[in-house]
Amino acid sequence: MQLVTGPLEGAQAADLTLTFVTPEAAEQLRAARALKPGKVALLSRGEAGDVAAALTPEDPAQAREVGAAFVKLATDLGARTLAVEATEYGDALALAALTAGSKDARYRAEARPGPASLTVSGLADPARLGAFAAGVQFARDLVNAPANVLNPVTLAREARRLEEHGADVDIWDSAEIEARGMGLLAAVAAGSAAGPRLIRVTLPARGEVTRVVALVGKGVTFDTGGYSLKPAQGMYPMKNDMGGAATVLGAMRVLAGLRERLPEGLEVRAYVPAAENMVGPHAMRPGDIYRAANGKTVEVVNTDAEGRLILADALAVACDEGATEVVDVATLTGAKMVALGADIAGLFSNDAGLSARLKASAEAAGEYVWELPLHAPYLKAFQKETLADLRNSDLVPQGGSIKAALFLQEFVTRPWAHLDIAGNAQKDGEATGWGVGTLVEYVLGGA
Question: With a threshold of 0.85, does the pTM exceed it?
Answer without folding.
Answer: yes
